[in-house]
Design a protein that fits this description.
Elements: E1 6-10, E2 13-17, H1 31-42, H2 45-61, H3 65-79, H4 82-96, H5 102-119, H6 124-135, H7 141-154, H8 159-171, H9 175-188, H10 194-208
Length: 220
Amino acid sequence: MLMGVLMLATAGVMWWYGNADPEEGQAAIPIRVDVLEEEIAVRTGAERLALQRELVAMLKAEGAFERAARVQEEVARAVDTPAAWKEAGALYFNAMDQSSDKTRLAGRVIEAFERVLAHDPEDLDVRTDLAVACYLDPSRRHRAIEETRAVLRRDPGHLAAAFNLGIFLSQEGRADEAVPWFEQVAREGQPGSRLQREAARILRVLREHPGLPSGETTSE
């Protein structure tokens, strides 16, 4: 392992795995949430959906991502659109940062993003994020690499996927295979961006510690 804190790149969001506070986002929820839930329980159809969407927005604003995700998943099952499933997956993804049970939530992310890909298999950002969720479930790490390689076959310039593949390979002790992916991100990434800087940092670590075992941790 190359880093004390593992960074993975999602489509548009840099997500740091390993330094989340499980209590974050668990503050008291406004009374209005309880009122909305009572109203939702007795409504049907379009009225129910409108109230559920309002509830999702309110819970998101309070940082209660898992509760928001559960409601959004109900919306997604009702409307079955890629956008609705993508939102559910994103909310479950953020909920992982607040939970000690990341494997369970990774499964929810995977299910939601698989629904998106069933509609649009070429959504490479969603496939990249699905791969990250797979990596966070130890039983699906091989699939994480496969899905990320699939993204890069379709778009060799997808830098989030390139960075993640470098992470996945390095964590398995395959540093020689990981280096070219970090080099690509360091070379092609926006100068000074978080992704570009982290790729450059990892390259320095790999070059300074060429024999670093996969289970050893080092950081700058």
